[in-house]
Amino acid sequence: xxxxxxxxxxxxxxxxxxxxxxxLSQADDPLLAGPARRTLEADGVRRHHRQMTAMAWAPHPPxxxxxxxxxxxxxxxxxxHGTDLPGHRVRDEGDQATGDASVNxxxxxxxxxxxxxxxxxxxxxxxxxxxxxxxxxxxxEKYNNAFFDGEQMVFGDGDGEIFLDFTVAIDVIAHELAHxxxxxxxxxxxxxxxxALNESVSxxxxxxxxxxxxxxxxxxxxxxxxAGLLAPRVSGVALRSMKAPGTAYDDDVLGKDPQxxxxxxxxxxxxxxxxxxxxxxxxxxxxxLLATALGGHAWERAGRIWFDVLTGGELARNAxxxxxxxxxxxxxxxxxxxxxxxxxxxxxxSEVGVPTG
Length: 357
Hints:
Elements: E1 13-14, H1 18-25, H2 30-53, E2 74-78, E3 88-92, H3 101-121, E4 133-137, E5 146-148, E6 153-155, H4 170-183, H5 192-214, E7 224-225, E8 240-241, E9 250-251, E10 255-256, H6 272-275, H7 281-294, H8 302-311, H9 321-336, H10 340-351
Parallel strand pairs: 2-4, 4-6
Antiparallel strand pairs: 1-5, 2-3, 5-6, 7-8, 9-10
C-alpha cells in the first residue's frame, strides 16, 4: 500500500454518474436525450480541463497566523444559464434571503455542511482552516448534474423531465462538498476501489448532514441520496440507496439501479473510473449497517469513526475496501475501546463481504 502524500489532487466529481446519463442520452424522446447528451459533453469538457490543470493546482495557502473561523464564509453566484464560473454574485455571508429559491437552498446547504463539521468534529470548513464556500446556481441550460470541481460547487436546474433543480436535496450539496473534505485529507485516488471509497465517503457525509439538519436518528433517516431530485414521471425515489443499494430506481428510461450491495456482486468495469459510482454501494451499505446497529445519531459514533479514518493520516490514497475497513476497526477500538462499536464495525463489513483481518 502506497503511503499517502501531502499533495492534493483535485478531481471533477458529479452527483449523477456517467452511466445514468449515458442511458438517458439513448432515450427515443429528444426532450430526454438532448439534455443528457449536452450534460455528458459539458461534463467531459470540465473533466478534461480538471485533469489538464491538476498538476498545476495548489491548495489555498494555510492561514495559520489567523484564528480558525468558527463561522462559515459563503458566497452564492448565479450563472444565469451560462457556463462561465463562478457567475454573478447574488448572496454573500450574512445577506438576507433572496427571491431565488435555488440561491437560498445552496446557501443553506453550504452552511449546514459547515455546521456539522465544526460542531461535531471540530473542523472549520472542508480544509480545517475556514475555507470560504462557494456555490454557483442555474448553471447552463437544462444541465442534469451538480459537481465539485476542486474549488467550488456548481448546480444545474435539471431538465424538468427526469431531474429537478439540483439544490433541492441538501445531501447532494453536502455530498459534493465532502469531495472537498476528502481532497484536503485522505485525497483518495478517484478510480477503482479508492474512487468508490471517495464516492461513498461523500454519500456518508451527505446523509449525515441531512440527518443532522433534520434532527433524525439513524433509524429515522431515509438513507437515500438525492431524494426529491427525480421528476414525478420517473419510477424511483432517489439516485442511490445506502440502506439497499440497487433499489433506488427502476424506470423504463433510466433502467434499474445497478449498484451492488456486497462484494459478491462487485462490478468490474473500465467505465466511470472503474465503477466508482457503482461499487460505492458496498461501503455505503456497511456504514448504514453500522449506524443502525449502534442506533442514536449516526454522526456521533459511526460518523466519528469514518471521520477519524479520513482525517487520521494513515489512509493511503490508493486504499481499497479492505484497507479502509481495517482502519475503521482500529479507529473504533482506539476511540471507544473494546465494546459495541468494534463489534458492530466487524459485523457490518462482514455482511458486505469485505475482510477486516
